Amino acid sequence: MQSPTFHLFKLHAQELDDGYLDRTPMLQYILLSCLFPLWGAAASLNDILITQFKTIFTLSNVASAFVQTAFYLGYFLIAIPASLIIKKTSYKVAIMIGLSLYTIGCSIFFPASRMATYGFFLIALFALACGLSFLETSANTYSSLMGPKKYSTLRLNISETFYPLGAIAGILLGKYLIFGAGQSLERQMKGLHGQARIAFGERALQHTLLPYKYIIFVLLVALVLFALTQFPSGKPKVDPTKQQPQARIGETLVYLAHNRRFLWGIFTEFMYVGMQTAVWSFTIRLAMELNSSINERSASTFMVYSYAAFFIGKVIANFMMKSMHPSRVLQWFSAFGLAALVYILLVRNMSAVYAAIIVSGLFGPCWATIYSQTLDTVTDKRHTETAGAIIVMSIVGGAFIPVAQGFVADISNMSLSFLVDVVCFAVVCVYSTAKMRAFKAEGAEKNQ
């Protein structure tokens, strides 16, 4: 449903009966894809905040991982309300609400830095994530709909390729605006006690504001551009002679609960996102544990490499999907990812950090492929918006898997904690193998 507001940039594509378009409108698709780096920057800054807060607030690995818990719980709780708003209004309205909430969440960092309490920062992250939940619930499904159906998975993978660019930007902002030069923060604070330690910590917390100032500016520009651009509804057309009543939330949940393929996709996405978040949360800590002579700023460089590898992995996966089935690509990437994670477990030197970077590259096709394939299992299109929201809710894996890895790190060491990620990538490998078998079986049936 399009609002009757003025649009400076018009839509030049025809909406089809199933909600897809006859061709991809490039301006709208590019604007939509530019949302992906916005939540990439927010997520990567969490990796910086975990390292910063662990020292300033004297936290264990488990406690510092609650940064991700607060962040991904926001995703989990808001995804269904976001889908209901999409049903009542449009994807565009949900995106603009998401951009507004994201801006508010970034703004809460300013009073949080003055209060200088860990809990207040977690509240700010939760509020910020509520906005991101709106964005992801709408943008992931919307991207897959922005053109012909047969290219829906590839289209979402291309949009997802923008994500690591934002993640790299977030890490660079954190590296140069939050982390200082010289000795590590832990060493600088080691000899401080009482009021001197508190004062030093408060000054360090002020640095956390700087990246969010730039993000707020970008968000305001994005809000204006979306307001001025006409977007398709992305919703299937209803035949008046065969009109079905709109599905209620209870009916949709019952439908999805009995869809085994959908549930399998949800579980796989839960494990994947948890693994991705955990690997990125602890790569800096892994580097600093294996080489105690480097500081946070130097160690964060490995995260720049990780997100660059993630970008390269996505580009390679997109290229491979032009001639290979997406499930086969996912199967190969997950198998090599498992091997790289096992290397981290067994080798206790800095080469393990480079193996973690390789793992990031092998994340390339995971989220978008699992998302699109899981959404495709919903054959009754009345449930599409809510199904997309529930897939986004699986992001809550990022709230639990890093905590589990932090617990293993606290009772053993950081290298062994990557065993948690081995289990997660094994689930992705099994999922992709099952999908590939199902695809071959369908092909065999058609040829009979």
Automatic annotation (TrEMBL):
Membrane-traversing stretches: 26-45, 65-86, 93-110, 116-135, 156-179, 210-228, 262-287, 299-317, 329-346, 352-375, 387-408, 414-434
Record InterPro entries: Lfuc_symporter_FucP, MFS, MFS_trans_sf, MFS_TsgA-like
A GO MF label: fucose:proton symporter activity
Entry superkingdom: Bacteria
GO cellular component terms, A-Z: plasma membrane
Keyword line: Cell membrane, Membrane, Transmembrane, Transmembrane helix
One Pfam match: MFS_1
Chief place where the protein resides: membrane
Membrane topology reported for the UniProt record: Multi-pass membrane protein
Localization terms from the record: Cell inner membrane
UniProt-listed NCBIfam families: fucP
Name this polypeptide is given: L-fucose:H+ symporter permease
Species name: Bifidobacterium apousia
Annotated gene: fucP
